[in-house]
Amino acid sequence: MLSRFSSVLCTFLFVLVSSYAATSPAKPPLKATAEPTLSAQEMLAVQDLFQRLSEAFLAGDPQACMRLFAPGVSGYDRIAANLRSEFHQTVYRKFEVVQILPEDTLRPGVHSVDVRLQFELVARDKPPEYQPSIRNSTSEIFTIKKMDDGSFALLHSAFFENLGLRQGMGMVVEGLLALISLCALLAFWVWMGWEAWRTRPKQRLWRVLVLVPLLGALVYFVGGYLPRKLRG
Hints:
about 230 residues; alpha+beta; four-stranded antiparallel sheet; 8 helices; about 20% strand
């Protein structure tokens, strides 16, 4: 009797809960809403900032670039030096700001934006008609600051850290090539000296001449070593 009563009670409660769930209005799913970090008016100011950066690169003017940075920015002298080196080496034929996307608000008035750039450049050390243009597309993060007048200024970007390095890398490569060439010449000199001293019968003239760095070795190679090898 007790078990039958419990079964009826459970059935009644199940029906009651099911009816309540069916008649309750369904709640719409919550949508994550995120306000843009920059307003439309602020985005126009940001676009103006990067338009001026584009004009400065096309003009090859490092001072015009540096005027776009906020006063007292960290690493000012290093960035200026990188820009001077870059424009000393490179002529920008194209510097286009394709897209600007707001990223984060780092603190009040300071934002990060993702900027897609396309540019075309040639090296200054060669006539433009004898070298192909270098074309590149990249996306860079720029940190910018809103100024009191509503305009924006640059604070930091890794983009400026990598400028002006082509000449430095070229000097490293040239130095390595020079070192390899020097080692090869020294090896040639030692080789000719060894050949002159071990030649039989002894030839004092060649032994003395080959002591003259490089030139003596070259003369011995042409006048002594090579003819002997050709004769077999």
